[in-house]
Amino acid sequence: MKKLILAAFMVLLCSGFAHADTIKIRFGILPVLDTLPLQVAVQDGLFAEQGLDVELIRFTSALERDTAMQAGQLDGYFGDLIATYLLIDREVPMYMALTSWRTSPGHPMFGIAVAPAWKGMPARAMKGRKLGLSKSTIMEYLADKMEHRLGIDPNDYPRVEIKKMPIRFQMLMAGQIDMALLPEPLLSLARIKGGSVLSIADNLDLPLTVLCLHRRYFDNDAKAYRGFVSAYREAVRNLAVTPEEYRRLMAETCRIPKPLVAKFPIYPYPEPTLPTSAELADVQEWMIGKGLLKRRVPDEQILPPVIP
């Protein structure tokens, strides 16, 4: 009996020490497909195995997430490259931890959807038709890239500012706008509801979204950062090996519409890497051209001092 009591005491004592050593990370996310590996890493206990207590804080808008990050209420966040540069330019002390999504052939994350009234119309025939998007964001950056690939002059599609995605989708379906730049799964939902897709951003070979961490997680030989990346890498591999095990999790955390839950593809997510200097330069040049940045941000200010 004494041995059992002693063993129980030792378990409690050890768990107490483990808890004391656990590193807390409050991580801001949006309910989008790019964040599924984070959800897997939390659900499967992969972060916990690395001594990390990662709490995913869900926001309904990028503005709310960015405000929380700037106010110091978060330790890390998921966001696009444009938003990340804007935060670092405002002296938020963080580094990019890894690229969470980059355009991948056969796995579109964004595209230009066409209203049901114009279903199947080619790009040239849509000249003069209104394109709904959010300006000065990764959406407009993508629109420029996609139109360039299509050989379309940006002035051919008058752009209408519609920041909120659900409203943009509803306006498209109601015929209040002719086209809309949408992420998946809304792109697929537009097809189901009678629209079509003019172009997808799957073969542009561009990093789009990243995970960032406060600079303090890169201290002490970047132990916390290395653990974060290791857990994330395992989550990506779990998704690749047994994707169907995570369908319910995807449906619950990534806002998959009911008509798509059973068949929407579970994408292969990229291994943890960082954007190249050339890719970052391209984004910054675009931002400077739009007046979002006054000057280039040095790579050492945004890329971590260690490789993931």
Can you tell me about this structure?
This protein has 308 residues and is an alpha/beta fold. It has two domains: 19-103 and 206-302, D-Maltodextrin-Binding Protein, domain 2, CATH 3.40.190.10; 110-200, D-Maltodextrin-Binding Protein, domain 2 (3-Layer(aba) Sandwich), CATH 3.40.190.10. It contains twelve helices and ten strands. Strands 2-1-3-10-4 form a five-stranded mixed β-sheet, with helices on both faces. The protein has a five-stranded mixed β-sheet with strand order 7-6-8-5-9, with helices on both faces. Strand 6, helix 6 (138-150) and strand 7 form a beta-alpha-beta unit. The longest helix has 20 residues, at 2-21. 39% of the residues are buried.
Kindly report how far apart the N and C termini lie: 48 Å
Uncertain runs with pLDDT below 50, 5 residues or more?
Answer: 1-19
Record the strand order, biggest sheet: 2-1-3-10-4
CATH architecture of the largest domain: 3-Layer(aba) Sandwich
Strand segment count:
10
Structural class comes to alpha/beta
Helix amount: 25-40%
CA radius of gyration is: 21 Å
For this structure, the CATH topology of the largest domain is D-Maltodextrin-Binding Protein, domain 2
Shape label: globular
Beta-strand content: 15-25%
Total separate domains: 2
CATH superfamily of the largest domain: Periplasmic binding protein-like II
**Name of the level-1 CATH class of the largest domain:** Alpha Beta
Largest sheet: 5 strands, mixed
Order of helices and strands: HEHHEHEHEEEHEHEHEEHHHH
Total number of helices: 12
Summarize model confidence as the mean pLDDT. Answer: 92
